[in-house]
Amino acid sequence: MSSLLGGLGEKLADKWVSALAVPGLLLLAASAAAAVLGQADALDVAALRARAGQEAARAGEWSSVAQIAALGAVVLGSVAVGALVRACAAAAERVWTGDWPAPADRVAARLTARRTARWRGLQSRITALSEEMPIPAPGRPEYEANRAEIDRLTALRDRIALAEPQRPTMTGDRFAGTGTRLRNQYGIDLAASWTRLWLVLPDTVQAELRASRAGFGAAVEGTTWAACYLALGLRWWPAALIGLTVGLLAWGRGRRAAVLHAELVESAADLHLKTLAAEFGLVGTDAEPDLAPAPERDSVPGSTPGPPPGFIVEREVGLALNRIFRKAT
Fold first, then answer.
1. What DSSP string describes 151-170?
2. pLDDT exceeding 90 applies to what percent of the chain?
3. Amino acid 313: pLDDT
4. Residue 256: its pLDDT value, please?
5. At CB < 8 A and 24+ separation, what contacts does 62-70 make?
6. Contact partners, residue 178, CB within 8 Å, separation at least 6
């Protein structure tokens, strides 16, 4: 029996299984407490302890095989609950990013319109103040006051979105805004170019992007666990407090992770688009469809060719890359 339990412990030490089993086991324990105590006696620890002692004594009368089977059932149940919550996290991520299903189109359109109206209102005030800006003279009261007001309004606008809102949620707009900003700057279609860009990124950059994406996914999964505890709160109110606490922490963590990931994606494009352009031989900045190929340079065998000195990714280069990636479709 001890050898079987030792083997089971080694299996539980597996990172993937532990990530599913531990939170699943906690939810099962909370569900058991809810079933025993209910709302009226939600904090009756003595009753919970007594019931646990009775069940432990009853299990002690079982055979070793039955005890192992019961333990295995609890572990498998915990893993199953964790796997189910992880699967539901994919749907929760769609909620976070504003990619809502068709039945929610009307609600999404209203929320997006309201966010757009607020964003445009702030942008109009920023534009008006910029046009009224006094002659640059740092230190003059009127100049500093105008500059401070523009900075304040810009911060408020950027809290809504960095580009004109396209989604009903802040996180969705933060991700979508990255593509908009890169398209405005370089003419590049991020969706069409991302896989090619990924292949020229250094390993360290790829690792940072994976870590930031995993952080966002973990936060979304945390909100899914919080929803489970909130639902359990209908039977046992302390679970609702747990769900509310976990949900608020995961929500804040998720917003920060989304901002970080979007900034890393944009930074990776800023720094390595020129390498991608060099890979495809686009080194000119004129508007001709056929841009000049990169001149031959001495290179180390097997190394990735880099951009020529002074090469800047202009919009024409980005548009040329789009034509290549879309295969002229």
1. HHHHHHHHHH-SSS--SSSH
2. 53
3. 80
4. 95
5. 64/1, 67/1, 68/1, 68/4, 68/5
6. 162, 190, 262, 265, 266
Q: Which of 279, 268, 292, 286 is nearest to 325 (CA)?
A: 279
**Percent of the chain residues past pLDDT 70, beyond the cut:** 83
3-state secondary structure of 14: coil
Amino acid in the structure at residue 252: G
Residues 6+ apart with CB under 8 A from 315: 185, 186, 187
Q: How high is the mean pLDDT of the chain?
A: 84
Query: Strand, coil or helix: what is 180?
Result: helix
Q: Which residue carries 């370089």 as its tokens?
A: 186
User: What number is the average pLDDT over the span 27-56?
Assistant: 85
Structure-token match 């810009």, residue found: 154
Measured between alpha carbons, how far is 179 from 184 in angstroms, rounded to an integer?
9
Is residue 298's pLDDT more than 50?
Answer: no
Residue type, 247: G
What does the buried/exposed string (b/e) look like for 63-84 if buried means 16 or more CB atoms within 10 Å of the residue's CB? eeeeeeeeeeeebeebbebbee
Q: Which two tokens stand for residue 167?
A: 């989604």
| Tens-place pLDDT, residues 174-228 | 999 999 999 999 999 999 999 999 999 999 999 999 999 999 999 999 999 999 9
Compute the half-sphere exposure of residue 8: CA atoms within 13 Å on the CB side of its CA: 15
Tell me the pTM: 0.81
Residue position matching structure tokens 């019961």: 70
Whether the CB-CB separation of 261 and 212 falls below 8 Å is answered with yes
